[in-house]
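User: Let's play a game. I give you a shape written as tokens, and you guess the letters that built it. Ready? Here's round one.
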């Protein structure tokens, strides 16, 4: 077992597999991603500020989704 602090919330968690953050932060991240993806599906051609404002997901988190290739900018 390898225990580390979550880089987002600071909570101690057992780092195993591909998780870089604790399960709570991972789940919240996935929920935020789903919000952004669904919003863009229903509202194509919106810019990042509009997406952040409509979904409540921070700009930096949306930028991270783009960097990870989970969203594509068109």
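Assistant: Ready! My guess for every position:
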């Amino acid at each position: 077992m390898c225990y580390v602090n979550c880089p987002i919330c600071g909570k101690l968690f057992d780092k195993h597999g591909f998780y870089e953050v604790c399960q709570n932060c991972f789940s919240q991240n996935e929920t935020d991603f789903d919000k952004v993806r669904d919003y863009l599906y229903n509202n194509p051609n919106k810019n990042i500020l509009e997406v952040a404002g409509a979904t409540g997901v921070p700009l930096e988190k949306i930028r991270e989704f783009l960097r990870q290739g989970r969203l594509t900018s068109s």
